[in-house]
Amino acid sequence: MPTVLVDVPTPEPTPPPGLPRTDWLVAVGFAMVLAASVFPWSRYGGAHLLNAWDLHWSLLAVVVALAGLTLAVTSRARPIAPPLQAASYLLLSLVVIAAVILHRRHPPPLAVPSAATWFALVGAALALIGAILKMGGLVRARSGRA
Predict the structure, then answer these.
(1) Which residue of 17, 71, 107, 119 sits 20 to 30 Å from the alpha carbon of 51, by its own alpha carbon?
(2) Could you give the CA distance from residue 72 to residue 92 in angstroms, rounded to a whole number?
(3) CA gap 104, 21 in Å, rounded
(4) CA separation (Å) from 81 to 17, 122, 143?
(5) Exposed e or buried b for every residue in 129-145, given b needs 16+ CB within 10 A?
(6) pLDDT at residue 113 above 60?
(7) Cβ-contact 34, 27 below 8 angstroms
(8) Would you place residue 18 in the very low, low, confident or very high pLDDT band (cuts 50, 70, 90)?
(9) Which residues pair with 112 in a beta bridge?
(10) In sequence order, which residues have a C-beta less than 8 Å from that of residue 44 and are 6 or more positions away?
(11) What distance in Å separates the CA atoms of residue 92 and residue 125, rounded to the nearest whole number?
């Protein structure tokens, strides 16, 4: 009997499918960007509710945040590879940060960026932190220091 058990290879430890708190942090961050899109992202120059959905850098930020939130929510029901998920979170959050910064630096004509852009930037930063924490957890799990 011991010879039979010795020949059986030990299974490789698989990384956890994702820490729920990191996915939660990413989802909250992207949801903050979407919540900020309800308020005017510009003062003066035709500012109105939902003007983040106008054709400008803010639209890129909001659409990418919507894609990130969709990924975070749907991946709970239909999991994807954790490294791919973490890399997607990282890329999407960086795009949102870049788009918010571009909107702040280059607002629409005759407009000044509003405080809603800072709220969106904080949300995108939370999503970025969640992505980095998820990647760090995967690296620790893979190296055996979980």
Answers:
(1) 71
(2) 11
(3) 30
(4) 8, 27, 17
(5) ebbbbbbebbeebeeee
(6) yes
(7) no
(8) very low
(9) 43
(10) 110, 111, 112
(11) 11
Integer Cα distance of 2 and 22 in angstroms = 43
User: Rounded to whole angstroms, how far apart are CA atoms 11 and 43?
Assistant: 59
Cβ neighbour number for residue 89 with a 10 Å cutoff = 30
Greatest distance between any 2 Cα atoms in the chain: 82
Residue 19 burial (10 A CB sphere; 0-12, 13-18, 19+): middle
Rounded CA separation 23/138 (Å): 13
What pTM did the predictor assign?
Answer: 0.81
Q: Cα–Cα distance between 100 and 109 in angstroms, integer?
A: 16
d(CA 22, CA 117): 23
